[in-house]
Amino acid sequence: MLDPRILRLVAITDDAEDRRPTLIDRVAAAVRGGATSVQVRLKTAPPREVVEITRAIMARTSVPVIVNDRADIALAAGAAGVHVGEADLPVAAIRRFAPENFIIGASLGSDAELANAKGADYVGIGPVFGSDSKSDAGGAIGVDGFKRLAAMVEVPTVAVGGITADRALQITVHGAAGVAVINSIFRADDPERAAREIADAIGK
Length: 204
Description:
Elements: E1 9-12, H1 23-33, E2 37-40, H2 47-60, E3 65-68, H3 71-77, E4 81-84, H4 91-95, E5 103-108, H5 114-117, E6 122-125, H6 142-150, E7 157-160, H7 165-172, E8 178-181, H8 183-186, H9 191-202
Parallel strand pairs: 1-2, 1-8, 2-3, 3-4, 4-5, 5-6, 6-7, 7-8
Helix pairs in contact: 1-9, 2-3, 7-9
C-alpha cells in the first residue's frame, strides 16, 4: 500500500532543455529542502536520456522517483513508479505488466478523467491555481474544484498547478495528501530554500 507521506511535497522537474545539465543537482537540492518524492517530467527528452537522468537522480537521492507518462521508461530505469495522464497508457493496462509494488499515479482535472484514473495509487488533481509550465493542463479548477474531485476518489490526492508556499497550506487543509510543484522550486535561484519554504508551510 502506498505510504501517503511520500506525496507531501512532490518535486516535478522542469523541462527546459537549456537548464537540463544542472537538473540533477537542482533535484538533489530540492530533496535536501524537503521534497518527499520526485517526478521526472521531461517531455522533450529522448527515452534514453530520460532513463539516464532518472537513474542519476535515484543515485543522488533517497526518495521515491516516479517517471511522467511512460511506464516502459520507468521500468527500464528501475523507478518507483509512473504518473500518467488521459492520453497515456491507462492505469488498468499498466497493472497487467507492472510489478506489484509499482506506484501508479494519474492526473485528474475533470469528471471525464475519472475513468482513466480508476485503480491508481494516488491522483494529482489540478490545475488548482493555474499553470504556465504545462501547456496541456487546462484551466484552473480552484480550491472548490479540487475539493469536489477529491471527494470522488478513494485514494490520496495531490494538488498541482500554481502551487507556492503561500498557497500550499491553503490546499492541504482541504484534505490533500500533499502538493506537486514545478516552477516554485525549479525556477527558483535556490531550489533547496524554495522546497524548504513549501515544506515548512505544509508541515511534516
